[in-house]
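Good morning,

Both structures are done.
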Amino acid sequence: MSNRRKKVFIHTLGCPKNEVDSEVMAGIFQRDGLAIAATPEEADLVVVNTCSFIDTAKQESIDAILEAGQDKGHRKLLVTGCLAERYGDELLREIPEIDGLVGVRALQTVGAAAQRVLKGSPVCDRDLAWLAEEQDPLSEARLSLGTAHSAYVKIAEGCNRPCAFCSIPSFRGKLASRTVPSLVQEMRGLALRGASEIILIGQETTAYGNDRNDGSSLPALFDEIMTIEDLRWVRLMYAYPSAVSDELIDRLGQGNICSYLDMPIQHASTSVLKNMRRGMSGNVIRETVARLRERVPGLTLRTTVMVGFPGETDADVAELIEFVKEARFDHLGVFPFSPQEDTHAATLPDPVPEDVARDRQQMVLDAQEEIAYARTQRLVGTTQTVLIDEFIDGETHARTEMDAPEIDGVVTIPGYAGAPGTYLEVEIEEAYGPTLVARAPSPAGAQ
């Protein structure tokens, strides 16, 4: 009999939270004696880690499952993630090629589940009651599947907010914050393995610690992170506007904490925010932005907004556009409303036609385009520190501290073959939309 280690290939769909879960699963698989395959063809088990946030994400996940099932051959197929948690029974009924399911609330069982599936036993692990502490040892053992120099760290699972448009709490559960020592240990481990940039994520990061009675809080976590000397850039995503405290603001731009904040506002109209069940007015958002701009000079502020929510009027959109022009966000994403199953918003009257929502999306994007153009043009002629992400098609792709990976701008350095993870001082020569073009540095420019 062969003693060859069984191999697992992981296909990840969806948001950075899923990327973290896939790396946690990879660490569990490796711990349990399985090897990670580079391609599905060489694997004994294919894991499809799914997303179900919006309809397009659901369809992409279903397509990936169907493709894996069609090409499975001798391989076993394990479906994990949000779609498995939320629609497990339907998936097993409609796609018989699936050999097992593990939902997001059963992540700690995935190693045993994989072994059972490989032996031919069916698996359906979902909706388990577990605490954040159970996630700690799993996350500390995670195995990097992507870029070594930049890593996401999920500081909490679940959410307590009642936002009308969001279904995530229904299948990811209530807020469950991890411990500060565990998070610091995980980040130190990532730094030892080459990570110099950490992106903190969660469903709502500003709620971190609210469910604990041990002094955990985002400012306290930042204080510990600033002691990790090997980390150079630490940025925060998914902050809730009404929960951005003065203590949090005071730490932005200090030590290794980037002068950067991702704070989805969703809208600026108080009536729309009320219908969204966001628990704040437009004035609260305006005041929060003003505090951030005043107290953190040079802050890079990213946000996302939603248009076409049921009951939204032309006047609401005009108010949103006016605020976008006033706030001058550095990065802005605009999404049309998409009704989700099991949400309050899906039951609301006065739906906005899809074509109208798309028109409103473009109107907001047009307003932001002028702001973004002026921002990048101001950078031409300046010297910026950039972090190299990759060398592709004959040029180096990098980012400034003002840009998060994959969602913000890129700095290209033609004619320069840079190593990923290297920091450089470069001069910005041109700007094309969100892309900056820099002059290749001298050999002494690498850090």
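Second structure follows.
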Amino acid sequence: MKKTIILALLILLRFSLFAQYDGPTAPDYGEIEKNIRISGSHFYYPTLMQRYLDADATMTLEEMRHLYYGYIYQPDYAPTDTSQYNALLAEVLSKQSFAESDYREIVKYADELLKEDPFNMRALNAKLLVYAQQNNVEDYKKAAQRRSVVQKAIASSGDGMGKQTAYYVIKVAHEYDILGFLGFKYGGTEQVEKRCDCNSLTLSQNRFGVDKIYFNIKPVLDYIQEKGGKM
């Protein structure tokens, strides 16, 4: 049964990652750190980030992985998710209907969140909602491309079925944000797993029959340790 579930997930991921996907591979953080510091390299971090912000659709999967996982070595990296804009954005999105002023606020709050976390999928989803309603095709494509980069990087790192094959994320918030893309809904329980750098989320009933999914959060735990146990 478990093999059938994993196969189903891999089919889903292969479809999502297209020809670039060869199977889940955990990120080699040491190699990534080395590569993104080489000026002139196609993995050089400032170049990767600019291509991401420009919504460059020619980025390879390895470049996406270097961009996402390499962010932990940037001065702005912080795995916290306590921005005031989370609540402000959620408040506007909770409305039954939107006026043009609401759309402006949604984009404003989403942009502020993306300044703090350029891979914030909730913020990107919010912008996609606005651009779809406004028939803004150009900006919709850009936001969709950026979201796709994050989704593909994470989905390429594991299958989530166990501690050894966990999906790798650089923020706990990204665990929740990626669930929909993977075909799941949060089941209500989060747990830091023992004897590994993993966190797990229970899942609502799903067509794969999966009860729990695992995420490797080593950069988050390392950050907490460096800060003396404080986020």
